[in-house]
Design goal:
The protein is mainly beta. Helix content is 9%, strand content 50%. It folds into two domains: 51 residues, N-terminal domain of TfIIb (Single Sheet), CATH 2.20.25; 39 residues, no CATH class.
Length: 107
């Protein structure tokens, strides 16, 4: 467990993570223990957290299909160019064109 101090109260936290590759979901469970200044356990909490990760070109396709235009893709908040590895930040704006609608009716 990792410890940190916040306003003279102590917290321990730990987490477990399982990755579902097929559905691109990361299932996490974060456990917190809160202690008072005397070191007595005050509260325990467990928070489930599921996040879905999206690949760079998957996100671009989804944005374009919904009428957005990708302006930039960065590796980090310092605006370093994305090199194809790790996390990324996408800057997009509503495009000038309306999104294409799919016609699902067959003649």
């Amino acid at each position: 467990m990792s410890e940190y101090v916040d306003y003279a109260e102590y917290y321990d936290y730990d987490h477990d993570t399982k990755i579902d590759l097929k559905n691109q979901i990361q299932h996490s469970e974060i456990r917190f223990e809160e202690f008072d200044q005397a070191g007595t356990l005050v509260r325990k909490r467990t928070l489930p957290l599921d996040t879905r990760y999206t690949f760079r070109y998957e996100l671009q396709l989804l944005l374009e299909k919904t009428g957005f235009e990708v302006l930039e893709v960065y590796r980090d908040f310092e605006k370093n160019p994305y090199d194809g590895t790790g996390e990324f930040i996408t800057v997009a704006q509503r495009g000038r064109r309306r999104p294409r609608r799919l016609d699902l009716k067959k003649d």
